[in-house]
Structures are given as structure tokens and as C-alpha cells.
Amino acid sequence: MKTSFPKEDIRVLLLEGVSQSAVDTFRNAGYTQIEYHKKALPEAELIESISQAHIIGIRSRSQLTAEVFQHAKRLIAVGCFCIGTNQVDLDAAERLGIPVFNAPYSNTRSVAELVLAEAIMLMRGIPQKNAECHRGGWSKSAAGSYEVRGKTLGVVGYGHIGTQISVLAEALGMQVLFHDIEAKLSLGNAQPTASLDELLQRSDIVTLHVPETPATRMMIQAPQLAAMKPGAILLNASRGTVIDIDALADSLRSGHLGGAAIDVFPVEPKGNGDAFVSPLIGMDNVILTPHIGGSTLEAQDNIGIEVAAKLVRYSDNGSTLSAVNFPEVSLPEHADSRRLLHIHQNVPGVLSRINELFSAGNLNINAQFLQTRPALGYVVIDVAADEATTQELRDRLSAITGTLRTRVLY
Ligand SMILES: NC(=O)c1ccc[n+]([C@@H]2O[C@H](COP(=O)([O-])OP(=O)(O)OC[C@H]3O[C@@H](n4cnc5c(N)ncnc54)[C@H](O)[C@@H]3O)[C@@H](O)[C@H]2O)c1
Ligand SMILES: O=C(O)[C@H](O)COP(=O)(O)O
After folding, report:
1. Residues 65 and 185 in one domain
2. pLDDT tens string 96-130
3. Which residues contact 405 (CB under 8 A, 6 or more apart)?
4. Mean pLDDT across the chain, nearest whole number?
5. How far is the CA of 234 from the centre of ligand 1 (A)?
6. CATH number, domain at 121?
């Protein structure tokens, strides 16, 4: 499909070493201007680069704040090549008419496998025994070493990852409790608890799988840690802000918690080679990993294809299906039509003013699809018109009060 704005002129900025599969997906779709960086960019460089980009792809490090978006004058879409989207100011993007896409489950399995492996390792005291052997020590003993079979796993956040872990844990003979703010259908024999506190009090192992939101920030502090069973294990592969990390270090030092596995931290290095600082460093009963819960080749490959394909689809066809901050619209292509996109503030009267333009020009609308969210409306219009008329229509559409963006796609 030939687009009005040539694909060769669309600049794609890919940061944080997203998978080569993303680059291939863009190239195969005809996009040639791809700027690729292995790391997240410092804010000043990010602002400089984003000001030239039409599409940006990031992972969990790059902070796309309202301030950064102010400089993104050409930007049409954001791709988060991961699950979490908390690093993007989604409201700011929505106000500017910029859809944000992610990969909601391409790395689910990778996180679930890591978490279960860590649970087994910690229940056996393997991190401590491993560290001792590396120091030349030898302590062959069953003391403090347990099977996971028959133990209770508490899952906080029973979403894609939480449910997958629940199913796998039951296959290992564990009992699963879960806590979620939404009513969730239990899989297998998993049981919801009445409260977070109840889950903490009853579980041998607690694993966190909530997104970063105002409600989950500092969800686990000293009182919650104190509520956990003596010797219990805490796993966090969600977001670093969910736990008060100093309180966790205190609880581990005091011997109340038996161990922890932490993949995400309140402050994380920008990229490989940068120093990692944490109060948990040096504790043998803590598995520390550099935010690699979703970092398997399988997951990264799938994420690259999935998110790049969503960005290409939006850029080529206007489809916003599965955008996280945007009205979801998808239309098949109509032969002999030109496609216009109109993104506007969701205020009364915009659609009627759009349609007045078409009827005044005596133009036949072949298809039209409107979706709204509280603050935003998005309409895709296929019209039977020649190129010059379509460009003129675009100028007139842009002049309608409340318009955020218009594009002629083809
Ligand atoms: N470590 C990694 O590499 C890695 C990889 C993937 C995802 N993640 C993180 O894991 C999070 C969860 O991923 P997912 O795919 O399971 O997401 P999901 O959206 O499928 O599930 C999240 C669940 O948490 C629940 N929830 C939200 N707020 C809550 C609260 N205050 N209390 C209890 N439950 C609450 C939701 O209702 C939902 O069921 C992501 O948001 C991301 O931040 C980390
Ligand atoms: O949100 C996610 O999917 C994970 O935190 C992974 O983030 P990453 O792509 O930066 O590894």
C-alpha cells in the first residue's frame, strides 16, 4: 500500500536494544529510516532525537514524560517493547493524540519460569549454599531446606503472569492463594483471599505481579513484611516501586524473612556497565537479577514482531487495536478510497462538523468509524475523492475546533 507520506521519510527511533525482529519487521514493511540505540538515552539526547522521530520504540528504562512529549512535534506513535507502560505519561500522550502500544503477554511465560525457579532455589537455600561453595566452604545439611510441594504460594496481582505462575505452581503440588483488586476467575484450585494481609499471613512464598500504579507504589512496607510468616520468601519481578527496599533489607537482616528474589528496583542503572547500588547487595539469601524477568530470546523476538507490527499497522492503516491509551479503531481497506484520520478532543459537535464538510463537498463516504474515550475521539474516514480534494479536506478538518491531529493515510 502506497501511503501519502512516503514510508522512506518516516523516522523510526528504537532504543534500549529492542530485538532485531523489530528492525526486520519495519524494514519488511518498507520503513528504511531506522535509528537504533542499545541503551536508553539521557533526557537531553532523548529530547533531541524524539524531536525528529515519527515513531519511537522503548523498553522499561526510557521515561517519556509530558516534558519529553512537548518536544515530540512529529511523533505519531509510541511502542513499548515490553509489558509495563508506567514509564510513559499515557495521559500526556493521549492529550496530544499519540497512541501507545505494548506487548501485553509476549514475555509472560519467561517471567513465570524465572519466578518459579527462584522459589524452588530459595526454599532449598541454594543461593546461600552456592555462595558458600564459591567461598571454598562446605556445609552439607538438610537444615532450612524444603520442597515446594505442599507449600502455599501467595500471588499478588492475578493477571497474565500471576495466573500462569498459579497454574505451574499447582502442577508442582503447591497451594495457591491470590489477591487482586479485580474479581478474577480462579484457575485450578487457587483461592482468592479477602485481603492482602490475609494472603501475607498465610503464604510461605509471596510473589508480586501488579503493575506500577499509585495504589501499588510502596504496597509492601515494614507492616506488610512483618505480617508475613517467619522464614517466608518474597519475590518481586513486577516493579521496583512496589516494595520499600530498605524495609525489606531490614526484615532480611533481622532474620524475619527467609529470603528474597528481586528483579526490579526503585532505581535501576540506565544500561549495561552502569553501577548497580542496592541495600540488598551482599545478602546470600537474596537472588538479585538485573530486570531480566522478560529477557529471554524467545520473548524478545516475539515482542519485537508484535509491537513493531502494531506500529506499522497504525502508520499504514490507522488501526489502533490494542492501544493502551487510545480509542480502538480498525477498518478494512476500501478499494478506490482515500483514508483520512481525525483525532480530536471528545467534545460535542465535532463529528457533525466533520460530516458537514463531506456533505458540503458532495463527497461520498465509503466507510467511517468513530471511537471515543472520555477525553479523546478518533475517527477514520474512507472517502471517494481525488488526491487534491483529499488534501483540501484535510486542511478543512484541521481547522475544526477541538482537532488535535489529522492525517491523510493514502
Ligand atoms: N521483571 C520483568 O522483566 C517484567 C516482565 C513483564 C512484566 N513485568 C511487570 O509485571 C507486571 C504484571 O504483568 P502482567 O502481564 O501480569 O499484568 P496484568 O495486567 O495481566 O496483571 C496485573 C494484575 O494486577 C492486578 N492489580 C492491579 N492493581 C492491583 C492492586 N493494587 N492490588 C492487587 N492487584 C492489582 C490487576 O487487576 C491485574 O490482574 C507488569 O505491569 C510489569 O510491570 C515485569
Ligand atoms: O514490562 C516489562 O515487560 C518488563 O519490565 C520488561 O522490561 P524490559 O523490556 O525493559 O526488560
Report:
1. no
2. 999 999 999 999 999 999 999 999 999 999 999 99
3. 76, 97, 341, 342, 343
4. 96
5. 16
6. 3.40.50.720
